[in-house]
Specification:
Blueprint lengths: L1 E13 L2 E3 L5 E5 H7 L6 E6 L5 E9 L6 E4 L11 E11 H6 L3 E5 L5 E5 L9
């Protein structure tokens, strides 16, 4: 049996751009992708904390250190610059692997620069 587990998460980024005139995807600062263990073109779920929208897309690596979080194409209808978002990536593994699995969780500052990378989240605590 294969289980779907959280692989990596970038928590509470600020959307910097929303571009309808693009084919599709989410552009993310490549340093954040690396910190979360998310690859370019990998499937992610993106949640808009402001309005509750949730969608699936794939990542495009943005300029390292830029802090860019840009929703492209149709996804731009659901996100505005300044919105807070959570980017999550999942992986498949068997029960034995899942037993010891710990996801990478990246926390950011107001400019979308990583402030902490952990593999543990505690319910009710953001920082």
């Amino acid at each position: 049996m294969q289980l779907t587990m959280l692989k990596g998460k970038i928590h509470r980024v600020t959307v910097t751009e929303a571009r309808l005139d693009y084919v599709g995807s989410i552009t993310v600062d490549s340093e954040l992708l690396d910190a979360a263990g998310i690859l370019e073109y990998e499937k992610v779920a993106v949640v808009n904390v402001n309005n509750g929208q949730r969608l699936e897309t794939y990542t495009i690596a943005g300029e390292p250190g830029s802090g860019i979080i840009c929703l492209n194409g149709a996804a731009a209808h659901f996100f505005d610059p300044g919105d807070t978002a959570i980017i999550m990536c999942y992986c498949q593994m068997d029960a034995a692997e899942a037993k010891d699995h710990k996801p990478k969780v990246v926390f950011v500052d107001g400019k979308n620069h990583a402030t902490r990378v952990t593999n543990y989240e505690k319910h009710g605590q953001i920082a």
